[in-house]
Amino acid sequence: MSRQYIIRRLLVAIPSLLGISVVLFCVLALAPGDPFSEIAANPAIPPEVAASLRAKFGLDDPVWLRYLHWLSAMAHGDWGFSFASRINVDTLILQRLPTTLIVIGAAQILAIVVALPVGVLAGTRPYSIFDQVANTLAFIGFSLPTFFTGLLLIMLFSIKLDWLPMVYNAELSSTGWPWLWEQIRQSIMPVMVLGLFQGASLVRYVRSAVLDVVRLDYVTTARSKGIGERRVITRHVVRTALIPVVTLVALQMPIVFSGAIVTEQIFRVPGIGSLLIAAMLANDTPVIMAVTFVFACLVVMFNLIADVLYGWLDPRISYR
Amino acid sequence: MAGSTPASLTAERPAPAGVAAAVVPRKKARFSPGQEAWRRFRRHKLAMASSVILGLVVLAVLLGPLFWQVPINEIDFASKLDGPSWAHPLGTDDLGQDILARLLYGGRISLAVGFCAMMVAAVVGVLVGAIAGMSRGGVDATLMWLADLFLSLPQLPLLLLISYLFRDALTKILGTQGGIFIMIVVVIGGLRWMQVARLVRAQILSIREKEFIEAARALGASSFRQVVRHILPNALGPVIVAGTIDVAAAIIAESTLSFLGLGFPPDIPTWGRVLFDAKDTMDIAPHWALFSGGAIFIAVLTINFIGDGLRDAFDPRRVL
Amino acid sequence: MAETLLDIRGLKTWFATDDGLVRAVDGVDLHIDRGETLGVVGESGCGKTVTARSVLKLIDMPPGRFEDGQILWQGRDLIPLGQDEMDKIRAREIAIIFQEPMTSLNPVYTVGHQIAEVLQQHEKLGARQAMQAAVEMLRLVNIPNPQKRVHDYPHQFSGGMRQRVMIAMAMSCKPRLLIADEPTTALDVTIQAQILELMQEMKDKLGMSMMLITHAMGVVAETCQRVVVMYAGKVVEEAPVEALFGNPRHPYTQGLIRSIPRVDRAAEHKERLEAIPGSVPSLLDPPPGCRFASRCKYAMDICVRGMPPFKEVGPGHRVACVL
Question: SS3 string of A169-213?
Answer without folding.
Answer: CCCCCCCHHHHHHHHHHHHHHHHHHHHHHHHHHHHHHHHHHHHHH
